[in-house]
Design brief:
Number of helices: 13
Structural class: mainly alpha
CATH topology of the largest domain: MetI-like fold
CATH superfamily of the largest domain: MetI-like
Helix content: over 70%
Distance between the termini: 19 Å
Shape: flat
Oligomer: single chain
Number of strands: 0
CATH architecture of the largest domain: Orthogonal Bundle
Order of helices and strands: HHHHHHHHHHHHH
């Protein structure tokens, strides 16, 4: 296990370098001059002398390779520069806003698991029954309706018509319900149908027939064997979507005025706050890398047939 973890950590290094190169290249290859943007936001007339002074202050007058190496060293120290708008370190803004984004993301994951696991499992057990028809309808709605439109529909029914839940802001658990459900609907649509298909596939495997002939209880077969194996691809897919989920909070945070990092990123795009944009791209890439690594380790614990080399034992 330790050797496998070490190998995966070493494999992360080139991915990390590619992520930093991507974020660095997008900023430097942009036709927008960062020094000019900084002066424009600060309401300072960008003369050639002032531009040269700002470029020297930010290190933009150095060769690109030197700038890239310095950017990597700063990122390793979690130094993403100073925001053009707030005039404060970007990392301080991230620490202030990221908890709200993480709260929204993980609450939506919890909602997706609570709904999709029993719904997908029982829709396979009672195939073509009422539960299966209900899961198909939920999956169709979650897959076909965009997040922003789903958010507006939930606001219309539960906030405006029924007056049950608040519309915007972050406060009590009631403020978390609508944005979490909005963000979770896409995951519920995917994982309900995925788990259903996996359970149906496992029900025709020889080990299920053998367990039944031995007289094992049906509940034990389903919970200990079928569900444990069928849920494994779902966990893998969930880990691959954690980064996508955090990036997807941008839309939901805008709809519900949720004070998270995604909303701050959208504001930075409109204000051309380049240090914040570079920080966001880098952090999302890191989240993708770490989440995939953690899911791989969890996959090894759930399925003992997976070895460190990735081959199945006979």
């Amino acid at each position: 296990m330790a050797r496998y973890i070490a190998q995966r950590l070493l494999a992360v290094i080139p991915i990390f370098l590619f992520a930093t190169l991507l974020s660095f290249g997008m900023i430097r290859l942009s036709p927008v001059d960062p020094a000019e943007v900084y002066l424009t936001v600060a309401h300072i007339h960008p003369t050639e002398e002032v531009l040269a002074e700002v470029r020297k202050e930010f290190g933009l007058d150095q060769p690109l390779l030197v700038q890239y190496a310095g950017s990597i060293l700063k990122m390793c120290r979690l130094d993403f520069g100073i925001s053009y708008i707030t005039k404060t370190p970007v990392w301080d803004e991230v620490k202030l806003r990221m908890p709200a984004t993480l709260q929204l993301a993980f609450s939506s994951i919890l909602v997706a698991i609570i709904v999709s696991v029993p719904l997908g499992f029982f829709s396979a057990i009672y195939k073509n029954g009422i539960i299966d028809q209900l899961s198909r309808g939920i999956a169709f709605l979650g897959a076909s309706i965009p997040q922003f439109w789903m958010g507006y529909l939930l606001i219309f029914f539960f906030a405006l018509k029924l007056d049950l839940l608040p519309v915007q802001g972050r406060g009590s658990w009631e403020n978390l319900v609508l944005p979490s459900v909005t963000l979770a609907m896409g995951l519920i649509a995917i994982y309900t149908r995925l788990l259903r298909a996996n359970v149906l596939e496992q029900l025709h495997e020889p080990y299920v027939i053998f367990a039944r002939t031995r007289g094992l209880r049906e509940r034990l077969i389903m919970s200990k064997h079928v569900l444990r194996i069928a849920i494994s691809p779902m966990i893998t897919g969930l880990g691959m979507n954690i980064g996508r989920l955090l990036a997807g909070t941008i839309i939901v945070e805008e709809v519900f005025s949720w004070p998270g990092f995604g909303r701050y990123f959208v504001e930075s795009i409109f204000n051309r706050d380049l240090p914040v944009i570079q920080c966001y791209v880098f952090l999302v890439a890191c989240i993708f890398i770490v989440s995939n690594l953690l899911v791989d380790l969890l996959q090894m614990l759930l399925d003992p047939r997976i070895t460190r080399g990735g081959n199945a034992k006979s």
